[in-house]
Amino acid sequence: MKIRSKFLLTIVFFAVVVLTKAQVTTSSISGMIKDKEGPLVGATIKAVYQKTGMMYGVITTDKGNYVLNNLAPGGPYLVEVSFIGYETQKKENVYLTLGTDETFNFNLKSSDVQLSEVVVTTFKGGTAAQAAAKTNISKEQIDYMPTLSRSFKDMVRLTPQGSNNSFMGTNFRYNNVTIDGAINNDAIGFSPSLGGQTNSSGMIGSSTRSNAVSLDAIQEMQVFLSPFDIKIGNFLGGSINAVTRSGSNKVEGSVYGFGRNSALVGPNSAGDKSKMPSGFTDYQTGYRVGLPLIKDKLFFFSNMELAKREDPIIFGAGSSDISNVITAQQATDITNFVKTTYGFDPMQSGTSSRYANSEKFFNRLDWNINSKNQLILRNNTVFSRATNLERDQQNFRFQSNDFLQKNNSTSTVL
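RE: above sequence
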């Protein structure tokens, strides 16, 4: 039985590994190397990721072609081509986009010829994934895009076919959200479902109005709508794919804080300043830091974020917006009757509030083992909780209808 259990556990482990690779988390470079006679066989191509010193290498095929796969998105890269008897050529400041293939073709000249100019031609590759309807969101766009909630939802608005996390008219539950290739969907379905009115991300943490990962931990994102690549699937709406930041040879970091309160938002009713939401606050604060533990070899990245939000629950009994549903006197009569008859206190019937708090911890370790092997270990942990009292102009609820919901999650990818 022990042998059988270990066998089943092994099968499950490899199944999980296969599933986590269902989405693209890397980039690639390809092209052709030739001289005036034609394709060069055996030419060496090296790509050095200058942030970490990681080197990727390959030689050309019998047709002069080459492909460098599994490259980290971003840059800068230094691409170098060399061959015995020929001048070495370089292409500097190369930046790669998540899930795409950049093409660089090189024409080498004999080393006994004085080079006056080196011409490197490049064009976007034509892979099936690139032909699909998709939007790539770079680190620069994430850094400078205006955002109120600092969440995935604000970033994917750059996709023209999307609206409120719904793509091509489908419900957000038909999306597939992955972080570093690992699925981050709210599979059980606890996230709010009323038309996506409250944080309809369809991701882990939606039930407590929390984000699944801090925006400061994201390196790059892409949204696929109709891919023609078998590696991208498991969705009907949109595939939201993100890769996280890593440390580098340069020590980088930030301490940040964002906040809003009732003085920065409008009144609850147009033109009625007396209905300003006096209990509203929304704050986020945190830090991120990336650094080398061993230069060109071992790197560490860490991010921590605290979020606190409080929303006023308006439409109290007797307010002008809900007087047709229940008056203050009716609420008092109901409270007295329930207390006397059942010994139960329905609690407050006037203006109330609800909150949503969370703590996010993200840590990542990158190890450049050698030119052919790299190991990445990262953990994302979120602790979140929220109260859930809701009212509107047609539905009134006493404070006793409120309830506390917790959503704690941890995800580790190796």
